[in-house]
């Protein structure tokens, strides 16, 4: 263990109340959106509209997690786009694969 | 952090050297790029699930008439409806909902640890890291239960056709493995194990990293270092694990 004489002088700042409040607000939003997803899951009939709604709500949640929790919204624009633009390929992959899947013969 | 603002001389580009053009340290930038590549891996898994699912017929009858069968893809809320200590009750997606809530909460405690790190507040970092570790372990415990239930199966078996010794036979199946599946077509069970397993392994790795950070914070490593930036880097990883779960929750359990 380090000797006490070598312990550094650390200045502890007081909590940033505004920031902490905002983080809890984001957590509340994430919880609320999940609650809405549950309500939709049991009240709406299966179909493309339901799937679309789920996808939109998921992207909303992803936006809050990446933007606020991972702080990407407040980073330099170059970093923001360097992370965001490549994810467009995921959307392309999704559309292409599911389209192929619908054209494929049934396995069994 | 000290390196979060890039100041350059007038008339010079940030790309001319001497500053970080992206305004973050090397380690944080590489964590972002690692997470981007990891996002592609998870997308590969989830999108292949979408492909295989859309190549199987969907169940078209009334929800009450649903029975497990290899003829069509199962409705997830009919598969995942068990909750610990409530045997025999049909509580669709309730347990997964609890797991989602646990992971979101552990993401909040992580971001509070990051906030405390910015202020050099060791006691607060310790407190919030410990909560994050507890959240992660609770999630893993839930997943272990979920897997056990999926593998052991329901009370009543499903009749499954199987090709054995040169002829088709029908046999009773309970539970699922990589070879046999009572809930529906075989790929359904395979994807369950691969997707939730790969995510669960990420959570496990995250808990290990979180514990390392906690240990180092307690022993004063970051006070001596003069900053808590590592909490941010591991925090990014931990939020990503939460992010992936949001997608798994939607595309595996809800849709």
Overview of this protein structure:
The complex is a heterodimer of chains A (108) and B (255). Chain A is mainly alpha-helical. Chain A has 2 domains: 17-70; 76-102. Chain A has helices at residues 17-43, 48-69, 77-84, 88-103. The longest helix of chain A has 27 residues, at 17-43. Chain B is mainly alpha-helical. Chain B has a single domain (30-55, 89-254), classed as Cytochrome c oxidase, subunit III, four-helix bundle (Four Helix Bundle (Hemerythrin (Met), subunit A), Up-down Bundle), CATH 1.20.120. Helices cover 60% and strands 5% of the residues of chain B. Chain B contains 7 helices and 2 strands, in the order H-H-H-H-E-E-H-H-H. Chain B has a two-stranded antiparallel ribbon. In chain B, a hairpin with a 2-residue loop joins strand 1 and strand 2 (167-173). Chain B is elongated and about 75 Å long. The interface between A and B is large, with 59 and 67 residues.
List the helices and strands and how they pair.
The complex is a heterodimer of chains A (108) and B (255).
Chain A: H1 17-43, H2 48-69, H3 77-84, H4 88-103
Helix pairs in contact in A: 1-2
Chain B: H1 26-54, H2 76-79, H3 94-118, H4 122-152, E1 158-164, E2 167-173, H5 186-218, H6 221-225, H7 229-254
Antiparallel strand pairs in B: 1-2
Helix pairs in contact in B: 1-5, 1-7, 3-4, 3-7, 4-5, 5-7
Q: Quick one: biggest sheet of chain A?
A: none
Helical fraction of chain A: 55-70%
| Radius of gyration of chain A (Å) | 22 Å
Amount of beta strand of chain A: under 5%
Strand content of chain B: 5-15%
TL;DR?
The complex is a heterodimer of chains A (108) and B (255). With 108 residues, chain A is mainly alpha-helical. Chain A has helices at 17-43, 48-69, 77-84, 88-103.
């Amino acid at each position: 263990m380090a000797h006490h004489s070598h312990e550094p002088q650390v200045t502890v700042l007081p909590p940033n109340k505004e920031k902490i409040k905002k983080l809890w607000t984001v957590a509340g939003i994430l919880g609320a959106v999940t609650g809405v997803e549950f309500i939709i899951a049991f009240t709406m009939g299966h179909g493309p509209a339901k799937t679309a709604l789920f996808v939109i709500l998921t992207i909303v949640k992803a936006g809050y997690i990446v933007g606020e929790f991972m702080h990407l919204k407040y980073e330099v624009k170059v970093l923001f786009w360097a992370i965001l633009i490549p994810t467009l390929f995921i959307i392309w992959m999704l559309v292409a694969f599911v389209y192929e899947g619908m054209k494929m013969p049934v396995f069994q | 952090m000290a390196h979060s603002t890039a100041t350059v001389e007038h008339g010079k580009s940030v790309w001319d050297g001497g500053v970080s053009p992206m305004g973050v340290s090397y380690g944080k930038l590489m964590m972002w790029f690692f997470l981007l590549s990891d996002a592609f891996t998870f997308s590969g898994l989830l999108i292949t699930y979408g492909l295989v699912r859309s190549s199987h017929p969907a169940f078209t009858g009334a929800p009450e008439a649903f029975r497990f069968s290899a003829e069509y893809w199962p409705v997830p809320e009919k598969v995942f409806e068990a909750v610990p200590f409530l045997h025999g009750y049909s509580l669709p997606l309730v347990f997964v909902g609890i797991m989602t809530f646990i992971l979101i909460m552990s993401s909040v405690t992580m971001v509070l640890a990051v906030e405390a790190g910015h202020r050099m507040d060791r006691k607060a970092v310790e407190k919030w890291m410990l909560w994050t570790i507890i959240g992660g372990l609770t999630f893993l415990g839930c997943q272990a239960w979920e897997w056990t239930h999926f593998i052991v199966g329901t009370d009543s078996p499903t009749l499954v056709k199987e090709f054995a010794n040169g002829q088709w036979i029908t046999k009773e199946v309970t539970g699922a493995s990589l070879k046999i599946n009572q809930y529906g077509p075989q790929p359904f069970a395979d994807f369950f194990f691969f997707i939730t397993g790969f995510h669960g392994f990420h959570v496990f790795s995250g808990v290990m990293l979180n514990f390392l950070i906690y240990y180092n914070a307690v022993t004063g490593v970051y006070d001596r270092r003069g900053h808590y930036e590592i909490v941010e880097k591991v925090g990014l990883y931990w939020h990503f694990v939460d992010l992936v779960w949001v997608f798994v929750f939607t595309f595996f359990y809800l849709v």
